[in-house]
Amino acid sequence: MTSFTRHFLRGIAASALMLTTVTAASAFTACQVTDTGGIDDNSFNQTAWKGVLDAQEKLGVEGRYLESQAESDYEANVNSLLGGQCDVIFTIGFLLGDATANAAKANPDQKFSIVDFAYDPTIPNVLGQVYATDQAAFLAGYLSAGMSKTGIVGTFGGINIPPVTIFMDGFSAGVDYYNEQKGTTVQVLGWNAESREGLFTNNFDSLDDGRAFAQNLYDEGADIVLPVAGPVGLGSAALADELGTEALKIVGVDADLYLTDPAKKHVYLTSIMKRMDSTVYQVTETTMKGEFEGGLIVGTLENEGVGLAPYHDMEDMIPADLKAEVEAIKQGIIDGSIKVGG
Amino acid sequence: MTTSIGKRELDDAGRALLNRSTRGRQDFEDLVVVPVFAVIVALILGALIMFATGVDLPTIGKSFVALAKGSVGSLSAVSETLTAAIPLVLAGLGLGLGFRAGLFNIGAEGQLLLGGTAAVVFSFTFDGLPFALLMPLSLLAGAVVGGLYASIAGILKATTGAHEVISTIMLNLISFQLLNYLLRQPFIQKEGRSDPISKSVPDAGQLPRLLDWIDPNLRVHAGLFLMLGAVALVWWLLFRSKIGFAFRASGENPDAARYAGIKSGLVIVAAMGTAGALAGLAGAAQVLGVLDRASPGFSAGIGFDAIALALLGRSHPVGILFAGLLFGGLEAGGRQMQVDAGVSIDLIAIIQALIIVFIAAPLLVRAIFPWGFRKSDNASGGSQ
């Protein structure tokens, strides 16, 4: 119940509403360790935390979280949730991979579930949650290529790690596919899928960087930018807000940013949703039922673990043909007739 | 920031005479009473801030219980407190030593980063050496690189007069990017990763954990002895050795020190180098004892917290040790506070900052707690 206070303060209306519905503490506790983006990043950690909140509301579990201030906190934070107080510990992010594996091996009776990390070989008490994000990013790339007036779109990432670059891969593959279909030459700045090099802020917390990187891409002609760096993207959204959405649109990641960033909602063309809330909720539910199993679950377009957010305010600006094409490609990816990965 | 540079020179002699009679009491008040009251006031203000942001009273009570429990309430809490204190104290000792020599070194963060990186790189490069060699030599590599990096600022100051505050801040910025660059080099970067992260420290290079035979989750490591040894060494260096006397004399009154035949340039470089070596050692202890590898920003602000720590400890090695334990306890307890009471860990940063504000403003503390202090009978009461 306690963590609500903070959410309430930060003005997150959804959580505030739930405040009234949560009653007594229950026997089952789900805990979460965030990465350095923080629990209220409007994106990555917050989406995963929403899964716990949903479970809190619907299943009556108790949720607790610990924010990591720095990389050196990961192990310490995981450790401070040990000792039987949590029925399942969610560790959010690829960078917690080592800390989670160590803690899981030292504490074989504690159940863990990590977002964005697949262990090979799997650890019996860890369930990895990974996402075919490139499928949804492919759609966003196609859409952006179709919407760009300058013929240039841009992207940048937080850190050059697979769960970040998979967005950029899918996005640039989507743009390539558009070019292939339409005979156009829309360019992607900020990521080269072959050389695995691109623009990275090297952090997941600086809104200033988000602004500066978007500015650079805009200066190079990009009129749609995809920031893949959690809260860093909020800085890019602030720039788009100032320049006007005619000049610069943002593609959100992780959550539907139209909903989680209401102050700047008009700048989002769409969002590439990685439904961590849904997988975290599922894992909580199966753990409650005593059916927890280590291994891997994969979110795809087909099982709605990933997806494209509604267009909201941009609905009328996007040509009906383009929308239909995006929908057709989605079906194509699901039935396997369109290949996303190279 | 004490007034050690400019004002001191003017009123130092007169004040010293006035103070002589009341020295013991004055020292006690400055070293012990002011910090203790500063901590109390900061905790009270912390509670008020929580209250003002809508946290209810039972939760505030619960969070302070959690703070105590998480810092000293169990074996694992003590272990976490000590683990957090080790790098803070090591870096704080370096900064305190610098302050004694009149140098305001802001560069501990960078020295710590490069020192830590050097220790990691040394350890996996010479993988195969036995523990008895590899671990101490890796620590040494950290100290040497940290010391060399800090001496850049020392040499710049000694030869050109470039102010160490500016140059160490700039050296910090350089070290952040240098680390990012280094961590991508094939001989440092971990195999199979495209993000900047180093290879792991081999087992023989690690500072062994002290209590893992009780519970594998207890992280306190042999860096604890390093920390205690460093406290003793720095105390000896400052108060019993010739070079330490030169440091202190230059810090108290550079002109007088020069008249006494102390080579100020040499003192500056030596003091910066020693401070940097201690910061580098802090970084090395952190990677060899806790993190196992270097990644961007692994210093986690320790170098900056250590500045506060050195001020809180009044630049005295024993004071720094206690200040480090306090900060370590706040960090470990803050985590518990977030888990148990759901109060943001950011609040801990606010409490730490408030402590420093009150330390830096002893007159304020004296005004709030007049009964805790002897009435000052001269103008120097609050000038420390």
TrEMBL record, chain A:
- Where are the annotated coiled coils located? none
Identify one Gene Ontology CC term for this UniProt entry.
Answer: plasma membrane
The record's section on InterPro entries has: BMP_lipoprotein (IPR050957), Peripla_BP_I (IPR028082), PnrA-like (IPR003760)
According to the lineage, what is the superkingdom? Answer: Bacteria
**Signal sequence: where?**
1-24
User: Which PROSITE patterns does UniProt cross-reference here?
Assistant: PROKAR_LIPOPROTEIN
Q: Does the keyword Cell membrane apply?
A: yes
Q: Topology versus the membrane, per the UniProt entry?
A: Lipid-anchor
What SUPFAM superfamilies would the database entry show?
Periplasmic binding protein-like I
Ranges where the ABC transporter substrate-binding protein PnrA-like domain occurs = 31-340
What Pfam families does the annotation carry?
Bmp (PF02608)
Q: Which UniProt keywords apply?
A: Cell membrane, Lipoprotein, Membrane, Receptor, Signal
Q: Where in the cell is it found?
A: Cell membrane
Record-annotated membrane-spanning stretches:
none
Family to which the UniProt record says this protein belongs: Belongs to the BMP lipoprotein family.
- Name the UniProt record assigns to this protein: Purine nucleoside receptor A
Annotated organism of origin: Thalassovita gelatinovora (Thalassobius gelatinovorus)
TrEMBL record, chain B:
Q: Which domain of life is it from?
A: Bacteria
Which InterPro entries does the annotation name?
Answer: ABC_transp_permease
GO MF: transmembrane transporter activity
Q: Where are the transmembrane segments?
A: 31-55, 75-99, 111-133, 139-158, 165-183, 218-239, 260-282, 302-327, 347-369
Which residues, by range, are in coiled-coil regions? none
On whether Membrane is a keyword of this UniProt record, the answer is yes
Q: How would you describe this protein's topology in the membrane?
A: Multi-pass membrane protein
| UniProt subcellular location | Cell membrane
Q: Which GO terms describe its cellular component?
A: plasma membrane
Main localization is: membrane
Keywords in alphabetical order, please. Cell membrane, Membrane, Transmembrane, Transmembrane helix
| Record protein name field | ABC-type uncharacterized transport system, permease component
Q: What is the lineage of its organism?
A: Bacteria, Pseudomonadati, Pseudomonadota, Alphaproteobacteria, Rhodobacterales
